[in-house]
Amino acid sequence: MVRAQSGRSNVYNASARAKARKSSLIDNTRMRQLVQQGPDSIGASIGEMGYRAEMDLYASRMSGADAIEAALFHNMDNDLAEVLRFCQGKLKSLVGIYVERFDYEKAKTVLRAVNGGASDEIIESQILPAENPRNAPWLNIVRSTEGLQEAVEAMSGTPWGQTLSKLEGEPSLESMENALDMQYFSEALRAVKGRDGGPRLLKYLRMEIDHRNVINQFRSIRMDMPTDKRQEIVIPGGKIDQATMKQACQAESDEELIETLRRSSSFDDNGFDEAKAESQKIGSLDPYAELLSHQRHAVLKRFSHLSPISAFPIIYYIEQKALEVRNLRLLVRGKAVGLPNEVLEAHMDY
Description:
There is one protein chain. By secondary structure, this protein is mostly helical. It is built from 18 helices and no strands. The relative contact order is 0.12.
């Protein structure tokens, strides 16, 4: 976790370095070229595009998509650490707010693995590979615990552990994940509302909250979740007003949910009719998730241009790097199971 930093920010230098790193990411043309490659050659190409060191590290004991995926996550961890290292002062605190979400995601990964009964060996070799030194604290939790409750106790002293310890009784994995989401956004909003946070970063975080809530409501409809449970998982702090979200929790279909959300001036409904049709056609929430992802990326890109000397170019780079890793994971996993190129390209977020 990145603690609050004092001192002078190096915003000019850090912004320039983030922009330089972004220019080295895999562009759309090269990503589409990767889609056309076969499963045997795609790994070598990805290695040459910036992932060679990590892929060599895992090549001795892993192969195929497993090795590439482990290398991608390892590279991402290295990248996040490097970005935080070249940020200083209050800028580091702001960027750290965004980076901290990846720690929360790893906490969820540990909880899912423990809850699913995965052995320590499987977790250490596949889920959180020991070759990645940044997995060490998480692996220590896994090795020293049996079951969800012990895992929660082992996380004491961390923001996520403190959050989970407040849950009463024997909470489900879903309840734990919802609590972690709420805690992360609560802390992030509190931090950016401070003197150095900036209104645009606050606006972006509130947009993220809205998108998380919207996707959760679409998912709840498919799970036939009762209204009271749907209200419990709404993350507070978004721009969509509470009254609209309360009504959204009562919607019984995608159509009804979208129409309810349209009552809020903070809901951007562009593309939702098309996403609804595609979602019904393929039986997946992916079209909604992709639409919301495009909206967030567009806002981040715009803010990074409007505020070129700020935390935004750095946050925009981190999000684009994470997007690259997600696309490459989808690509290698899809190639491994023989998905057609047109299907892969349709699900990739450029």
